[in-house]
Design a protein that fits this description.
Layout lengths: L3 E7 L2 E6 L2 E5 L9 E5 L2 E4 L16 E3 L11 H7 L4 E4 L1 H7 L3 E3 L5 E4 L10 E7 L8 H4 L3 E6 L7 E4 L7 H4 L1 H4 L2 E7 L17 H11 L3 E5 L11 H9 L22 E4 L1
Parallel strand pairs: 3-6, 6-7, 7-8, 12-13, 13-14
Antiparallel strand pairs: 1-2, 1-15, 2-3, 4-5, 9-10, 10-11, 11-12
Helix pairs in contact: 6-7
Length: about 270
């Protein structure tokens, strides 16, 4: 994707520089080692820290927050960062809970950030996309989650889509029917918890292949597959699944480096 810069901070946290905007996804900047409760008997320990400290991110125009109620998508340091962000786009329950400069979107609702007159920015349209953070009937427990599709006037090949934490189900299969996706930030990891057995709460590698076979994006950027103990599939499982995938999907995977120290940051231009 032309003129897009992607920096993977760690987990689901990505800094996007596109259309003149600085966009941060699901801010997580706490140090590793702590165990967090996700509710209903589930929880996880953070194993690795961010590649970039919150104070080193710089000014943020927009935060795309897929959901506010799990610390692997919004932790304590991330919440502090929200206060200084220009605009926060999230779920309707998330906007009600967080208040401030939050806009809540339901799946397939849109909002547009208008470029200031005379600036180098372009109008940025954000479309919320469906997510289900677990098996069927899990929404009352797992809560509301959304993904985000970004578009602006000079895009050439399609939208930039952040899948959000979801399993593959019918509403997510609608995304390739309704949107032309050029680059996807794909939340993976096959999240599982001991209390719920083999049920998974984010995309498995097999589901990711099926979804990308429908999407046919030019660039696939895996995120949110490492750094926490509740992930049950990592890079090896994803690479194995995509190596056997049709349409040359394995060649479209772009892994952003995640250095062990905050002194270095993995970046790419999509």
């Amino acid at each position: 994707m032309k003129d897009v810069r992607i920096t993977h901070v760690g987990g689901p946290t990505v800094l996007l520089e596109a259309a003149g905007w600085r966009i941060l996804t699901d801010p997580t900047f706490d140090a590793p080692g702590r165990r967090y409760s996700f509710g209903w008997g589930t929880g996880s320990r953070k194993l690795t820290g961010p590649a970039l400290a919150a104070e080193d991110v710089g000014p943020v125009d927009v935060v795309l927050l897929s959901h506010h109620h799990h610390a692997d998508n919004l932790d304590d340091t991330g919440r502090e960062l929200l206060r200084d962000a220009g605009t926060v786009i999230t779920t309707v329950p998330g906007a009600h809970h967080l208040r401030g400069r939050c806009r809540g979107l339901r799946p397939w609702q849109q909002t547009t950030l208008t470029a200031p007159p005379g600036s180098a920015r372009q109008d940025l349209t954000i479309t919320a996309t469906p997510c289900r953070h677990g098996p069927r009937f899990s929404r009352p427990v797992a809560g509301a989650v959304v993904g985000f599709a970004l578009s602006w006037p000079t895009q050439e090949h399609g939208v930039l889509w952040m899948s959000g934490d979801t399993v593959l189900y019918d509403a997510v299969r609608e995304v390739p029917a309704r949107l032309s996706v050029d680059t996807v930030l794909l939340h993976l990891g096959a999240v599982r918890f001991p209390v719920t057995g083999r049920a998974h709460y984010s995309l498995t590698a097999t589901e990711a292949v099926e979804l990308c076979s429908l999407l046919r994006p030019r660039t696939i950027v895996p995120v949110h597959y490492e750094g926490w103990e509740h992930f049950h599939e990592g890079r090896a499982e994803v690479e194995h699944a995509f190596a056997r995938a049709p349409l040359g999907l394995g060649e479209r995977l772009h892994w952003l480096p995640l250095p062990p120290s905050r002194s270095a940051v993995g970046t790419t231009s999509a």
